[in-house]
Specification:
Layout lengths: L4 E2 L20 H14 L4 E3 L9 E5 L11 H7 L3 E13 L3 E7 L2 E10 L2 E7 L5 E7 H14 L10 H15 L9 E2 L8
Parallel strand pairs: 1-9
Antiparallel strand pairs: 2-3, 3-4, 4-7, 5-6, 7-8
């Protein structure tokens, strides 16, 4: 089932999400719905807060980057199969010199800006079976994970922009929260006026 994606301005996007355990109700169904929602919106990642759930869960599918000419053959091969579920994730290290990449977000449609992030991360997380992992990722995959991880920390990519950039997009962000935007997927707008 495709779920509505929560738009910029909803308080759930600003909450630090809570951990879950094996008893979380209908997790398999939730994950299935999240992947369906993400693919329906043509996204590469989706965090639970983006569907209104303040829990430490996000999904990533980097396969759309397999045709990216900027990637090496090895990187393309890696992203072509990179699809993961991250539960109760914690980034334990970020290393390297920050690099810019143009990011967007399903909760903030039609706004894309360069964001600086470190190129390599080490992250501890549990998979959909609650098996623990500690892995290191770099490049575009690290970037996608960092973006989704920020969501479970209550951080949006727009928070990482310069004060000037923030001022330039302020009106567009306000319009998104009011539902004054055309999108091709289901969204829930926090300040949209209800029709009587």
């Amino acid at each position: 089932m495709i779920l509505p994606i929560v738009a910029y301005g909803d308080p759930v996007l600003r909450q630090k999400a809570k951990e879950i355990n094996e008893d979380y109700p209908k997790l398999d169904e939730l994950l299935e719905n999240m992947f369906e929602t993400m693919y329906g919106a043509r996204g590469i990642g989706l965090a639970a807060p983006q569907i209104g759930l303040p829990i430490r869960l996000f999904i990533v599918d980097a396969t759309p980057f397999e045709d990216d000419d900027d990637l090496t053959e090895d990187e393309r091969e890696f992203v072509s199969t990179f699809k993961k579920v991250f539960i109760n994730a914690k980034i334990v290290e970020e290393t390297g010199d920050e690099w810019a990449f143009n990011e967007g977000c399903l909760s903030i449609p039609d706004i894309n800006e360069d964001v600086f992030r470190k190129p390599q991360i080490t992250i501890e997380y549990q998979d959909e079976n609650f098996k623990k992992h500690k892995e290191t990722f770099d490049g575009i995959v690290a970037r996608i994970i960092q973006h989704e991880y920020d969501h479970i920390e209550g951080i949006l990519f727009t928070d990482k922009l310069s004060p000037l950039k923030k001022r330039l997009i302020k009106g567009r962000l306000a319009n998104i929260s009011k539902g004054k935007i055309d999108v091709s997927y289901r969204m829930k707008f926090p300040m949209a006026k209800k029709k009587r």
